[in-house]
Amino acid sequence: MSVGAGGFLGPFRGIGLVGERGPRMWERLGQWPVVRQLTGHDRLGRGAAAQSPSHVGLRPRTADADRVAGSVCPYCAVGCAQKAYVRDEKIVQIEGDPDSPISRGRLCPKGSASLQLVTGPQRLDKVRYRAPYATEWTDLDLHEAMEMIADRVVAARERGWQDVDGKGRRLNRTVGLAALGGATLDNEENYLLKKLFTAMGAIQIENQARI
């Protein structure tokens, strides 16, 4: 009966055991992660059994952090807690917070990669503005941009303002503004948004937790 190229020893040729004898062979076998896992104390294979000599000398980015700031993942509505590790006032790593009763230190692939939102080269760190009919973007000062937004909010409120309806009943509302919250807004932020837009007379105030 044929057993393929290399015979019974074929699978072992690529791992350096063919030709080994006695204690030398068992020493080599003992270096396999699966053997270390089955024969050692790390039965789950999440510690010493999974480490190689090159891993032992590695240091995590979190080891040199100056401080740790608490945060929340900016993606879905689950709201997994995160720990942002900071060195020299720059975020060097983001990991799950094991103290969170929601996620218990776990993050999905998107949450685990959220460091790129802060450090990615394509992240915009200035206000960009393109005037009506313009073909180019320009940089704006943050204070100037906030003033422009405030002016537009006031103008939209006034354009859509309704004092009374067709039967003369008092309305005191605007249909020129609307608010739509997202997943990363907590209860306090939603409370403040509701108060703000209600005070301005808006009636379309919603929250969509899947955004």
From TrEMBL:
GO biological process terms, semicolon-separated: anaerobic respiration
One GO cellular component, as annotated: cell envelope
Cofactor: [4Fe-4S] cluster
Domain 4Fe-4S Mo/W bis-MGD-type: 66-122
Subcellular location, principal: other
Keyword Iron: yes
Matching Pfam families: Molybdop_Fe4S4
KW Oxidoreductase (keyword) present: yes
UniProt subcellular location: Cell envelope
Family affiliation: Belongs to the prokaryotic molybdopterin-containing oxidoreductase family.
Molecular functions (GO terms): 4 iron, 4 sulfur cluster binding; electron transfer activity; molybdenum ion binding; oxidoreductase activity
Keyword annotations of the record: 4Fe-4S, Iron, Iron-sulfur, Metal-binding, Oxidoreductase
Protein name per the record: 4Fe-4S Mo/W bis-MGD-type domain-containing protein
